[in-house]
Amino acid sequence: MVRVRLENLVKRFGSVTAVDHVTLDIGDGEFVVLLGPSGCGKTTTLRLIAGLELPDEGRILFGDRDVTYLPPRERNISMVFQSYAVWPHMTVYENIAFPMKIRKTPEQEIREKVLWAARLLQIEDLLDRYPHQLSGGQRQRVAVARAIVVEPDVLLMDEPLSNLDALLRVIMRSELKKLQRRIRVTTIYVTHDQVEAMVMADRVAIMNKGRLQQVGTPQEVYDKPANVFVAGFIGSPRMNLFDASVAEAQGAVVLDAGGLQIRLPEAYAGLLEGHETVVVGIRPEDIHPLDRVPPGVEPYEVDGTVDFVEPLGSDTIVHVKTPGPVLLMKVPGSYPAEMGDRIRVALNLKKLHVFDKATGKAIF
Amino acid sequence: MSGRVESYREYKGEAVKRIAVYALAVIIVSWIAVPLALIFVSALAQPSDYYNVHKIFPTRFTLDNVYTFLVVLGAWKSTLNSVIVAALTILISFAVGLPAGYSLSRYVFKGKDAFKLAIIGLRMFPVIVLAIPLVVIYLRIGLADTLLGVALAHTAMTLPFVVLITSSLFAGIPVDYEEAAMVFGLSGWEAFLRITLPLALPGLSAAAIFVFIMSWNEVFIASILTLVNRTLPADILVSALNAPDPYKFAAGFIMVLPAMIFVFFARKYLVQVWGISIK
Fold first, then answer.
1. Could you say which of A73, A83, A99 has the minimum Cβ distance to residue B176?
2. Domain that holds residue B23
C-alpha cells in the first residue's frame, strides 16, 4: 500500500490530447474515483498508472518510487478490467493463482490465498469451473479475487461494474467498497456513473476533455462545484443552469435572466464586480413549493406555471416555467401539480451558484 | 422464422423449405463425393475387375496399384518431397506471417490499410507470371531444383493467407487478456506465449493444415522449378499420366488422402478460422 502521485501527466494520441496536465495526489489506502463522460481521458489516465500506456510528459510516483516508464509487471499493481479479462483457457482457481505463480509463490501459500480470496468474494464453489460456465457477475468476482490475492500496492479498476445488470451493480458497488475498506489497498477506480462515484469514493476526481476539473469528497463536489461542468455533471436531476446579466437596481445587485430577476442578498453583491454576464445554477432540490419550504430556508419567491410533472414515487420533479428559463424543482414524495397550473416557488438563495460566463469557474 | 410453428400452412411451408435444403445438400455432397468415391474405388480395385466390361462395380480389391505406384514407380520419393516442401512452407510462412498478422490485429500504424491491400493484391498475382522469372533467379542463386526453392515459392502463395487469417484470429482474442497478464507480472512476449498463443492454437493449427494442403496440391510452380526433386503433383503430371489407368487412380488416391485425413480432424477448427475471417 502506497501513496500515488501524478505530476503534470500528458498523453497525446496524434493531435488529440487525451490527458492534459493532470496532477493528483492519492493517499495511502484511499479510494479515489476518476469520474467523467466517455472520452474524458479517465481510462487513459488509469492506463498510464498501470503502465499500459506511457505518458508524453509528466511523472508517476508510487511512494518515492518513480514508476513513470516501468513496465506494468514491475509496478506491483493489480487491475480489474471492464471486460474482466478472465483468461478463458484457465479454471477459476488457475486464474486467481496465475499472478502468484508468475511471482513464484510457494504452492501451499498460493492455495491458501486463493481460498481466502474465493471465500471473501463467495466464489469457493466455482474454483473448478471455466469462465464460459460463469455468469457475468461471477466472472467479475473472479477478476476481483485475482486482483487482490497478490496484495498490490495499487488496485486499479476500469469501470468494473458497467457490464452488470442494474441490481447486481448496486450490490457489487457496496461489496467492493467494503472489501476495499477491509484490505485497505490504495484504489483508483474509473467510472462514468456519478452515483457509483458518489457512493464509493473517499474522493472524486472529475475529468473532462483530458483535464482535471475538481477533486474533492463527494459532498464537496456536490456542494461546491468548482465550475459549470462539475455543476452540471454531478447531481440528478441536473442542476438548473442559465445565463443571466448582472445589473444594479436600487443599490442591490440583480441577476436578470430574460424576465426572471433574482435580487441578491447584499453579502454576495461585491463578488460580482466586473462581471457582465454569468451562468447561474441552482439545484432542483434547492427549489421548493411555497407551501413546503423547509424550516430555516429564507424563501426567494418566483412566479411560474407548471410545464411538466414527473412523478417518480420517492420524489416528484416539477418543471416550472418562469418568465425566464424553465426550472426543475424536486419535491420529496408526491406533489399535486397539473400541467398549466400557476405555481409560486421559493428559491434557496444560499444554495445559489454563480459561474463566470467566459471561464466557467465558480464565483460563488 | 425459427421457433414454434403457428399454423398448418406455415408448417407445410417449413416442410417444403426443409426438403429443398436437404435436396441442395445432397446435390452438393454428391458433386464432391462421387468423383472421390470413383477415384478411391478405382484405385483399390483389382485391374481385372476394373477392366471387366460386365462389372459396373468392382468386387475384388487390392493395394497392389498403390504399392506399385509408390514403390516400383518410385513415387514415395516425390511424396516425401511434397511432405518436406509443405512442412517448410508452413514453417517459413508462419515465421513471417504470424508476426505480421499479430501487428495488423493489435497495432495502428501508418500505411496499415495500404499494407492490407497489398497483401490482397498479391493474391491476385497469377503464379505463371512469377514462375518464369523465378526460375531465372533461382538458377542464378542456386535454388533451382531444390525443395527449399519450391517451399519459398509456395510461401509466396500462402503468406497472404497466413497473414490475413492470423490477424483475424488474433483480432478475435481481446487484447485485455494480454494486458491483464502484463499487469499481473508477464512481459509482453511472455503474455503472448502464455495467454494469446494457447487461445489461438486451434485456429492456428487449422491455418497450418490449410497451408499444408495448398502446398501439397500446388503443381504449376513445382513442375517449373524442379527437374529431379519433383513434388508429388509435379511427378504425377509428368509420369503417372502416361501410366496405365489403375496407377493414375492410385496417384489420385495418394494425392487426395492427406487432405481428407486433415480436414476430417480439423473440420471444427476450419469452420472457426473461416467464421472469424468472414467477420
1. A83
2. 8-51
